[in-house]
Specification:
Pfam families: Peptidase_M23
Structural class: alpha+beta
Helix content: 55-70%
Domain M23ase beta-sheet core: 288-380
InterPro entries: Cell_wall_metabolism_enzyme, Dup_hybrid_motif, M23ase_b-sheet_dom
CATH class of the largest domain: Mainly Alpha
Shape: elongated
Largest sheet: 8 strands, antiparallel
Number of strands: 13
Strand content: 15-25%
CATH architecture of the largest domain: Orthogonal Bundle
Keywords: Coiled coil, Hydrolase, Signal
GO molecular function: metalloendopeptidase activity
Number of domains: 2
Distance between the termini: 31 Å
Oligomer: single chain
Amino acid sequence: VFSQSKKQQELENRRQELRIEIEQINSMLFKNKSKEKSQLSAIEDLNHKINVRSNLIKVTNQQANLLTREIGVNQREITQLREDLETLKNDYAEMIVHSYKSRSEQSRVMFLLSSNNFQQAYKRLQYIKQYTDYQKEQGENIKIKTAELKVANTKLLKQKEDKQILIKENNAAQAQLEIERKQQREIMASIQKDVKTYSNQIKQKQQEADRIDREIEKLIREAIAKSNTKAGKSSSSKGFSLTPEAKNLAASFVANKGKLPWPVEKGVVKLKYGDQPHPIVKSATIHSNGVRIATSPGAEVKAVFNGEVYAIIVQKKGNPTVLVQHGNYFTAYKNLSKVYVKKGDKVTTRQAIGQVFTNSATGDTTLSFSIFKESTTQNPASWLYKM
């Protein structure tokens, strides 16, 4: 029972997380209906929403099934309690009848006086006392069993109510999912008419992302070379030559792996780390050196850890990127509209370093975030808290 209750709580926590994520998706991706999204952007957002809602339905079903099992256990417990209570009441009734028939003090006195010796009289006196105590104990047991039965009944009713609420919510979620899947099919039908155009759009987006990543990797290689030259080593050495202060900073950064704050106050991960097939154009592959996080318009970008601004990257066909160094680790914050810091500035954890760019045509506000160990990319989901 404890194991089931623990599992039920875990499922409830996960269900609430998914509900919050759907609220954030609606707020950040679907709130501004006056803006006309591209077909690609619209289907990507819708796919993400459908996946999250499908997970919510799955978790809610698991909860309902677990509640069904718990209800079955409680019903058996209630049946057993009722049988125990009935047995106690019958035994107690028999004792009361027997006590009533032998209630006179004279009967008790004669019972004692008819003893053959003092030891037998003492034992009979103890028996009378034990029998009286047993009567009281049976009365208390009846009270306890009655209270247990009441608690079990209350718990069972609550579980049945909870199950009905889950079923109702799941039915509503299923209905909404069908609406979203219909929208998905309609957009996909439109996209399939001109796959080549959309493939080119995907390719162009990938090229823009790769261009920024190449610039970041170039800057990191330069930083490695500078650190080795400063330390009197060959500039061609692959790893950093860190000062004691930089070593401590890097060690502290690693010690906080999995606990780093998100670079925005709230957001939804639209694109995960790594190579993955495009959800729409199957022939296209997305290569992601980090994560793409959709957030609210005007959202500020915050440093995920103490460090130093190594560079502000500004390209002709793109928005600014802030590169922050943490010893031999770097964090990159891409697609900013405003930058609050400059090269060489010391920054602290959760310090605002800029503002995320909002596309005026689509209303999308998306931050691209990456983590590097020297020039090797890292999966931000392994570093940021609950990503």
